[in-house]
Amino acid sequence: MTMNEHSAEAAKRAATNPIAPGWYADPEARTFEGRYWIYPTYSAEYDKQTFFDAFYSDDLITWTKAENILDIERIEWAKRALWAPSTIERNGRYYLYFCANDIQSDHEYGGIGVAVSSRPEGPYYDAIGKPLIDRFHFGAQPIDPHVFIDDDGTAYLYYGGWGHCNVVKLNEDMVSLDQLEDGSAYKEITPQQYVEGPCMMKRDGLYYFMWAEGGWGGPDYSVAYACSHSPLGPFERVGKILQQDPDVATGAGHHGVFQATGSDDWYIAYHRRPLTETDRNHRVLCVDRMRFSEDGTILPVTMT
Ligand code: FUB
Question: What is the pTM of this model?
C-alpha cells in the first residue's frame, strides 16, 4: 500500500474526539506534503492568547503538537492577543494569516497580519511589520482570515466578523493585496445569517463557502454553507450542516476542511464545547466526516 492509500484508508476510521488535549478553537485544516495539519487558536482567556501551536497527523487519528510556531514576541505591532490562524503553502513557503489586537482604542493597531516560514511547523516570522488588513479600510471587522488559492493560482483572503464577510485578492507574493476586477480593494460577500469564521473549499468545480452562525459562545453556534460558481459569490445560503448535539457537545462552529489524500473523502475540523463546560473559552478540537449527496449538497455532519 502506498503512503497515500494508507493515509486515505486510515482516515476512513473515526478519530477520537477531541483530537488533542487542551483548550483550542478556530481550527484551520490543511494538507501539506501528504500530512494533515490543524492550526488553531489557543483558547484561553484573551490576554493569554499570545502564541500558536499546531497539530499534525499522518492518518487523521494520531495527532502530534508542534509547539509555539508563532509567538507574539515576534510581531512588533501585536500587543495583546493572536487568534484564528489560516495557513497555506505557495512556492515552497508557508504563509500564516492571523488576527491580533482586538479593538481597544483608536491609537492601537489591530487587524489581520501575515507571517511566513519555510516549514509548516514554523518558526513563523511577521512578514510585513504591520497588519495586511487593518480596521479602517477594509469594511468588516478584521478577524477570522481564511486563505484560499484557486485552481488558476489566484489567491483570496476571506475575513470578517460582526455579521459581515469580505474578500480581498492577494498578489502572488501572498503578503500584499491586488485589486479586484472592478478596481476595488475588497468585496462584501456576506451570506444570510453569517456571523464569522469563513471557510472556502472547491469540489467538482463548485465553490462551497462555509461559515459560523448563531451566538458566539452560545449553544446555537453552528456551521452553514452556500454554493457558487465563483469564488466571489454570490453566496446563497443552503442551510446548516453542523450544530450542537445535546448528547455530545454544544457550540460547534468555526472550522476548516480536509480532503483525505488520494480520495474524495472529506473531513471537517471544528471546535465545540464539552457539555460540562460553561466558560466561553473552553473549546476543544474535533474532526468528523463530511459527506456529500449525489447532487453535491453537504449532508448534516454527525458529531462523534
Ligand atoms: O476564538 C476567537 C473567536 O471565537 C473567533 O474570532 C471567532 O470565530 C470565534 O470562534
Answer: 0.94
